[in-house]
Amino acid sequence: MTTVLDRAGPAAAVTPPGRRPVAMLSRPGAGWIVPGLVLFGLFGIAPMVLVAYLSFTQWNLLGSPQFAGLANWQRFFTDPAILDSLWLSAVLTVLCWGFQTPVSLLLGVWAAGKQRSRAVLSAIFFLPLLLSSTAIAILWHALLDPNWGLPSYLGGDGNFIGTPQGAMISVAFVASWQFIPFHTLIYQAGTRQIPEVLYQAAVMDGASRFQQFVHITLPQLRHTIVTSSVLMIVGALTYFETVLVLTAGGPGTSTYILPFRMYATGFRSYDMGYASAIAFALVVIATAISIILVRISGFAKMRSTREGL
Amino acid sequence: MIRFGLIAVLLLATACGTSGPQAGGGEGAGGGTLHVWVLEDKLNATQQKAADEFNKTSPVKVVIDKFNPDSYPDKLRVSIGSPNAPDVFFNWGSGSISPYVKAGELADLTPAFDADPAFKSAFLPAVLDVGKIDNKYYGVPLRGMQPVILFYNKQVFGDAQPPKTWTELLSLVDRFKAQGVTPFALGGATAWTELMWVEYLVDRFGGPDVFKRIYNGEPGAWRDPAVLKAAQAIRDLVDRGAFGTNYASVDYNSHAAETLFAKGRAAMHLMGSWEFTNHTELQPDFAKNGLGFAPFPAVDGGTGDPANVVGNPTNFFSVTAKSKHQDTAIKFLKTMMSDSYVQGLLDAGDVPVLGSVEPKLASTPNPDFARFQLDLVRKAPAFTLSWDQSLSSAGAQTMLTTIQDLFNRKITPEQFVANVENVK
Amino acid sequence: MIALLWLVIVAVPLLALFGATLRTQDDYLDNGPLAFPDGITGDNYLSVFDKGFGTALGNTVMVTAGTVLLVMITAIPAAYAIVRSPSRIVSSGFRMFLLGLAIPMQVTVVPIYLVITRLHLYDSLLAVVLPTAAFSLPVSVLILASAMRDVSEEVYESMALDGAGSWRVLLNLVVPMSTSAIATIGIYSALQAWNGFLFPLVLTQSADQRVLTLSLWEYQTQFGINVPGLLAAVVLSGLPIFIAYLFARRALTSGLMGVGGK
């Protein structure tokens, strides 16, 4: 991803200028990149252009899209349902970030230790990552059933996923349950890159473990924290399967986060033009947030978190 | 440069596609396949048998494709806009097919009915007309009627009687609550289960014309006092604990509501007649000994006829305009009126809307229920189709989520009326 | 502390998942998800196969294989060109892949549906393979290009002096020297395909073309209150990846890091 950018740039830019060109050195022509470009252009870039175009049309899946001018966008900026979805998306994002970051940071730092028991536990922590979002959502849908699931152990009537707050917390928890292992790995790798000497010096100064964590580990992990946060936030903005399987947007519209509203508008209400407007807005928001985060954190180049894996 | 090139290629492909050849259900002269889309339910075995029988002699082979009821309308819409449209498909008539009719995607079946008067006269005329749009027939009603029925658990009821009036219903609610039993099972995680309450109450308070005006998009139709009264009655039920407290988490699709009901943790369940079939399948003992059924009660001061019913008057099979095998499709649909097919429906608890069905009821496994259903529908002055099938899909989505908000006490009855006001 | 707490949060649901699949439906409904099984039954796993699990598994395998193959034959030459080609087309192409990293695939479903139906591919496995592979490309190209850059200029020169053409250089030098990166992108794209849900949901419809993730979703209705049967399907759907995890943990971890990054 972004983490390998600085090493993967195009050849022309990085060939050392002073090097003697080898005349017979055969270099691959532009043709080599064409199959990949066509595939990605057709199903990656073109759909982005098309989504922008479709947002100015009306299309109910029957027949062809009809040009509709600014109608969808006028509606977009005046629709209270959109504001509601934006708010729900923001809540979900904050919940996910607020839950995942401390847990995966602490777990990652802990797992960076070399003890064998930690390796074994880490292997168990990793297991949720092996299941698909769908499988995980189905598992939790069963476990959150009010009458036959885990809520029945907690006393009360088990009405959790049916309440607006409960449903949102459920989605945030299930998504976190799935992705914390991934972020733990990022933090584990980041922690292992912190030079050992820093800790040795601190120990000589008599710093406690807590002081070491606050004054060495956290500052050293700041780039990792930004990387992980960007991934979490963009991820939370695009959760879809979890919502569809777990709550289907309900109760009412309590978990109609933006991507789910896009899907429901397009494939349930058959209003593809408006769905495209929502989709386009989603891209803009996700990109803007990533850029702002990277800017605020004060570095344009992300350091590699892949090393050490 | 490249990017623009790619877009051009793509737009070209897009443009060609719209006018390009449509790969329908089958190809080649004589052979080919006829895709029939149905819901995944207890009737699939009967449908498959009819297809197998038909395929023995027909050069065009019938293929039955089964779909999950919840995602079926989406799949249908998506495919009818695509070259993979079915030849024949299951639907609810009325609003569920009118967009297709407008888009010219459905075959007009009027000539087929006109050519074969015996075919046409076999159906109850009132039901046949639900499949009529702009005075043309677009659907053949070949499945059972599915009125919404008040089921009750006889073991829980003991000597109590099912409610005939709203007052009786409320006193039953208090009685069961005192016993620690949830009065009504409700799969409230699935919004259409709650819609059934709204449909019946609006009909009882104001009669079927209230919804007709809504369906016709008349301004202020939702402002009819019957809608507010129905919403208030629902709020009252919710406040009384008629549905327990955790209904919002109960998923109908996971059969959670019916299991609670059958296990005696709930006393009653307002649900479509198909629920009887589900119980015979999943809890056969309960279906035999514990399952009672009654009409929805009257409400005090309501102007609607208490004999009215809501639900699905029938289901239809429609034929797509692009199908290459329309004649075969009609031929196949006619075989579905055969005695053995009708018997298969009856055995599964489905009462088809054929005039000739009554004498056959006695030989079915559950003659009492079959007769109850037939009587209920026959005596009903009005049989209103489920609202979510009549309204536009966007309107239905809004209405369903708003009803869920009402049941979950997120909004007041007054807000409910205001929030659905623009739904058509 | 937190490690132990998290162990409970991870292990308990997984144990409940596995335990439930060995119990009867009545046992599960009467005693709850955490109870020790009354007895052990294998029926739940068998019941999954009555519901078309085999077809779905076959479809998922085909989609996965197709995606990996397509990614390999497009990403490897593309990465090679990015690292070695002086062409300006290549460098703008590279920028396009970078741009692609920022596109969440969720937002493209409507236009992709349009493109797929117009190409007459709707309801086919190929319809799932094409966009899935396309969205695996940016990450794959980056990982590969990064690894290929490690091959030193001298090695290229010596091969060139032997008169080797681009093809030979790619097959005899670049590919062998980037095997671990190739394994990573293979696993990354395989996981994308195996766990993908949205594209199959929107681009296929019939039971013959249904992949595992979609089947699981359908099972939720089909099994209904038969939770053990449903969960058996969940376990089976994850089994192949679990086995891969046991045998190739390192490669799988790197592949997954790519997945999460999308």
UniProtKB/TrEMBL annotation, chain A:
Keywords: Cell membrane, Membrane, Transmembrane, Transmembrane helix, Transport. Belongs to the binding-protein-dependent transport system permease family. The chain crosses the membrane at residues 29-56, 86-112, 119-140, 160-180, 230-252, 272-294. This is Binding-protein-dependent transport systems inner membrane component. It is found in: Cell membrane. InterPro entries: ABC_transporter_permease (IPR051393), MetI-like (IPR000515), MetI-like_sf (IPR035906). It comes from Kibdelosporangium persicum. Residues 86-293 form the ABC transmembrane type-1 domain. Pfam families: BPD_transp_1. SUPFAM superfamilies: MetI-like. Its main location: membrane. It comes from the Bacteria. It is a multi-pass membrane protein.
Automatic annotation (TrEMBL), chain B:
Residues 1-23 form the signal peptide. Coiled coil: none annotated. Keywords: Signal. PROSITE patterns: PROKAR_LIPOPROTEIN. This is Raffinose/stachyose/melibiose/xylobiose transport system substrate-binding protein.
Automatic annotation (TrEMBL), chain C:
This is Inner membrane ABC transporter permease protein YcjP. InterPro entries: MetI-like, MetI-like_sf. The keyword Transmembrane helix applies. The chain crosses the membrane at residues 61-83, 95-116, 128-148, 169-191, 225-248. Belongs to the binding-protein-dependent transport system permease family. PANTHER family: ABC TRANSPORTER PERMEASE PROTEIN MG189-RELATED, ABC TRANSPORTER PERMEASE PROTEIN MG189-RELATED-RELATED. It is found in: Cell membrane. The keyword Transmembrane helix applies. Residues 57-248 form the ABC transmembrane type-1 domain. It comes from Kibdelosporangium persicum. It is a multi-pass membrane protein. Keywords: Cell membrane, Membrane, Transmembrane, Transmembrane helix, Transport. PROSITE patterns: ABC_TM1 (PS50928).
